Amino acid sequence: MTSPKTPQTMKPATAAKKLGVYLEATPEQFQEGVVSRDELNALQADPPEWLRDLRRDGPHPRPVIAAKLGISIGGLARGGVTDPLTTEQVEALKAEGPEWLAQERAVQAEVRKETARLKAEKAEKAAEAAKPVKRKGQPHRPR
Asked: Which of 8, 10, 111, 133 has the maximal Cβ count within 10 Å?
């Protein structure tokens, strides 16, 4: 006899991270409870007003800010951005175009280029490895 399955739950911080929102900006009820996998899926499928507002206006957590600026989270730290920002503040930062942001975007572009190069190199090696090996002096016999 098996015991009934208990629903998988997570801490509010984990759920907020998966939803891409800043935990401290969520309602108290969300911050104090636990979130089941089904509740998380429901929030993602049909977000309530507070979640839509947070995603649209912020404040946003660092990973979201970094993505909106097109840089890494480390680049944010190097640029001195440690606090959550609203969408308005992110847009103002983009419009201002500080030198550190341009530099971090260039670094990120290089990282993406190198990642693409390594991926292509790996695919090329995999294609080479998949080719049949011909040995000298022995005729190729299909298996």
From this structure: 10
